[in-house]
Amino acid sequence: LLVDIGNSRIKWTTVSRGKARPSTAFARPDAETLADQAAQWWGDLKAPRRILASNVAGPAFAAALSEWCRAHWQVEIEFIMAQARARGVRNAYTVPDRLGPDRWAALIGAWHRWPRAALVIHAGTALTADALSHDGTFLGGVFVPGFDLMRNALAAHTAGLCCRPGEFHRFPRTTGDAIASGAINALCGTIERMTRFMEQAGETKPLI
Q1: What one-character-per-residue DSSP string does the chain give?
Q2: Which of 3, 63, 121, 195 is least surrounded by Cβ atoms within 10 Å, i.e. has the fewest?
Q3: Among 102, 130, 148, 177, which one carries the catalytic annotation?
Q4: pTM score of the predicted model
Q5: How confident is the model over 48-69, as a mean pLDDT?
């Protein structure tokens, strides 16, 4: 059982004989209500031999999930933690284990799928853009508020810019379209600039 515990959602899948089933996603509950939700998700699932999890929801949620898996399957969760080096990837973070486990797992996955320079994008509640060099070194990366966070920030901190429907246009002509287009441009601009920085650092044009 593979579990990705994000800020807003939980994604999970099962892997058997090297093949993963299509993943499933749910809104992430609070730690206090996790047990009821887990019973709905996994109550009929055969006990897995291993459980690997990436968790950015904090220790309380990790403890609640561990307790449920221990009680129902007698299996301990193996939580992914960033390291200085693993699976051919070197972590150049100043404090390697402070790198988020979701980002670390994505970097390793990208390297094993495409062992060359790459910009690894993780788009969720926030967007991260992480630079992976041609020799498998994680150079560093950036965080940017995601699409909804940007729109909600404008709604909360400006007068008259409440969240309203909008679509991307190069030259928006409504406030809703201007907000949506601005958020998308900011996200795409982050990716474009990180790509340019990698090229300026001497990396060949990276995969994205």
Answers
A1: -EEEE-SSEEEEE-EETTEEPPPEEEEPPPGGGHHHHHHHHHTTSPPPS-EEEEE-S-HHHHHHHHHHHHHHH---EEE----SEETTEEE--SSGGGS-HHHHHHHHHHHHHS-S-EEEEEESSEEEEEEE-TTSEEEEEEEEE-HHHHHHHHHHHSSS---------SS--SHHHHHHHHHHHHHHHHHHHHHHHHHHTTPPSPB-
A2: 63
A3: 102
A4: 0.89
A5: 96
